[in-house]
Structure formats: C-alpha cells, structure tokens
C-alpha cells in the first residue's frame, strides 16, 4: 500500500470515529453538533475535562463504549500517522545519503537482482572488499539488501536513468542476476547502450536465453543450474580436487589465494624469469603468464621472461602476493583489486 493511500485510510478511520461519537451524543443526549463533537474529542483524547452537560444513564453507557473503543483506536491512528511521517522523512534523508555515496563510487560493480543468486554474488563481492550497488524492483529484495548493508536502489534496472544513478558510466562491471531471462536481457541492452566498454556478466536459465544475452551485449554468460550440476558431478568424482580449488580459488581458508598481478611499465620484475621470481619470493608459484599480446601460457617454463603490459597468475599467501605486487607499477581499483597502470 502506498504512502498516500495509508494516510487516506487513517484519516478516514479518525473521521469515522469522531462522526460516530458526535452522532451518538446528538441522538442520545439531544445536544447540538458542537457540544457533541467537543464531548467526543475530550473523551477519546482522555484530557480529563468535565462533562459538557449532565449525562443520562444511556449517555454514560455510550461514553463508556466510546472510551473503551475509541481511545485505543485514536491512539493507534495518530501514532501511525506520526510514525509514517518520521519514516518518510528519515527515508528521504537515508536515500539522499545513499545517493551521495553511490555518486562517489568509481570502477565499482552494479548488481541487478537480489534474489538467491544475487545475494550469493553480493556476499562474494563483500569478501573481496569490492564496491557495488544493488538494483532491484522488489521491495522484499531491496529491504533484504538494505538490512545487509548494501548500497541499494529500489527501481527498474532496465531504465536508463536508474542505471546512470547507479553509476553505470563509471562502473567496472554489470552483473544481472534476475530469475527472469527477459528482464536480464533488457538490463544488458540498456547497460550496453549507455556504456559500450562495460564488462557485462549475465545470468541465463537456458541456452536460448544465453544466446539472447550474447546478442544483447553480454560479455560473459553464466547458467547457474548448469554450473551447479557440473560442480555436483565433480564433487562426486573428484571431491579432494574440487575442495582444494574451492579453498584456494575462493579463499575459503582466508590464507592461500590465486591472484592476477599486472606488470606495469615501471615494474622491477620486467626481464626477470619465472625462476627468478619464485626464488625471490619464497612460497609464490607462478601458474600462468599472460603475454603483452594477450596470449596465455599455462604452467610456463622457469626460464620464461616477464614483459611489461602482461600479467602473472600467482599462487601464495596474501602477504606473499602483496610483496610481488609491490614490485609492480600498479593501481588498486575501488574493490582493492590490482589493475594495470594505464
């Protein structure tokens, strides 16, 4: 129910209560309208003033009924009006503060949809200390996101103005996680129109939806049910391997991680071999190297050299990898991730 309709309902209830009391005194006591209204008001307000005129036995019984039924009703109505007004003012203030925080974001993520999948995505982004904004048109989803301290917008994610309000023009990536394939497709279309360079990750429920998302401009497409089924099969056939990957890649133990380290133009690692890096940073292992032209070499040989503009996929503890990163010329984005020094 909208705010205005709630106010209308409450005022109608209050007016009906006053009308009931006034009509009762006019009929039972034969008083005029003003005296009857005055007696009704002081009765339900419990101000303790004396009776306007002496009451008959029937009038006293009516006053008892009005007091028992009217005082609680009037208190509830007035309290609801005050509470709704305060919530409206506080909500406007909170939205203004949230919009101000969103405007300050840069290189962040825009998460469209806060259902089960969206909530899992948000949890992972929080673990990565990444900045993100949630957009959802469902009040329940929006409320849940707010309760979990997410920057949130209650609106239509397919609307140009809403996406711009979420900072889509400065965003690092858009993730669509709605359960409705059509809604995801429209959100991707709108986002791609606003920001042609944006990385877009779309959720699809089937192959047809995945194809439409690709045509709409999605960079990557995820089918949660397919991935879930594959993961269950891997756990059944190779449980130890899968648990190891989850521990390392997802950082479940909070120590060993896999990170991509970009090599800037001023990096002291330029010209060094994989062997030199692993000997210099004890415990670090280079799993892959991306060359400047984009070619990826898995499990590179120890004499492979490092060149500017490429990157290393390294495995080690967080402290070890931070030491490697310290030898590179880099910037950190708003989520704390390493990005090229452009």
Defining traits:
single chain; 342 residues; alpha/beta; Helix Hairpins; Rossmann fold; Alpha-Beta Plaits; four-stranded antiparallel β-sheet; disordered C terminus
Could you characterize what this model shows?
Mean pLDDT is 83; it is low at 330-342. This protein is α/β, with parallel strands linked by helices and 342 residues long. The chain has helices at 3-28, 33-44, 57-103, 116-127, 139-147, 160-165, 181-194, 207-216, 224-237, 239-249, 274-280, 318-325; strands at 109-112, 132-136, 151-154, 173-176, 199-203, 220-222, 256-262, 285-290, 296-298, 311-317, 330-332, 338-340. It folds into 3 domains: 3-100, Orthogonal Bundle (Helix Hairpins); 105-228, Rossmann fold (3-Layer(aba) Sandwich); 239-340, Alpha-Beta Plaits, CATH 3.30.70.1450. It has 12 helices and 12 strands. It is 51% helix and 16% strand. The strands form 3 sheets. The chain has a 6-stranded parallel sheet with strand order 3-2-1-4-5-6, sandwiched between helices. A 4-stranded antiparallel sheet has the order 7-10-8-9.
């Amino acid at each position: 129910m909208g705010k205005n309709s709630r106010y209308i309902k409450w005022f109608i209830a209050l007016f009906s209560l006053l009308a009931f009391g006034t009509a009762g005194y006019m009929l039972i006591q034969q008083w005029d309208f003003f005296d009857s209204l005055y007696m009704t008001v002081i009765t339900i307000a419990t101000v303790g003033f004396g009776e306007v005129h002496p009451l008959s036995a029937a009038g006293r019984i009516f006053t008892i009924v009005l007091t028992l039924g009217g005082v609680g009703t009037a208190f509830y109505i007035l309290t609801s009006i005050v509470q709704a007004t305060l919530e409206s003012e506080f909500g406007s203030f909170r939205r203004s503060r949230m919009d101000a925080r969103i405007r300050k974001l840069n290189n962040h993520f825009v998460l469209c949809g806060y259902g089960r999948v969206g909530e899992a995505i948000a949890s992972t982004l929080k673990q990565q200390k990444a900045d993100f904004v949630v957009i959802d048109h469902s009040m329940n989803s929006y409320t849940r996101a707010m309760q979990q301290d997410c920057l949130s917008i209650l609106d239509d994610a397919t609307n140009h103005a809403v996406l711009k309000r979420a900072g889509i023009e400065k965003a690092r990536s858009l993730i669509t996680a709605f359960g409705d394939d059509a809604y995801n497709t429209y959100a991707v279309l709108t986002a791609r129109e606003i920001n042609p360079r944006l990385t877009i990750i779309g959720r699809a429920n089937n192959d047809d939806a995945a194809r439409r998302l690709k045509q709409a401009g999605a960079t990557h497409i995820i089918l949660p049910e397919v991935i879930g089924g594959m993961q269950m099969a891997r756990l059944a056939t190779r449980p130890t391997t899968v648990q190891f990957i989850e521990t390392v890649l997802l950082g479940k133990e909070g120590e060993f991680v896999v990170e991509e380290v970009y090599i800037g133009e001023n990096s002291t690692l330029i010209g060094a071999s994989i062997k030199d890096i692993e000997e210099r940073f004890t415990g670090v292992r280079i799993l892959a190297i991306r060359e400047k032209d984009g070619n990826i070499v898995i499990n590179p040989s120890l004499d492979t050299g490092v060149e500017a503009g490429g990157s290393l996929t390294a495995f080690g503890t967080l402290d070890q990898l931070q030491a490697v990163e310290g030898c590179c010329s880099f910037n950190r984005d708003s989520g704390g991730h390493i990005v090229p020094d452009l």
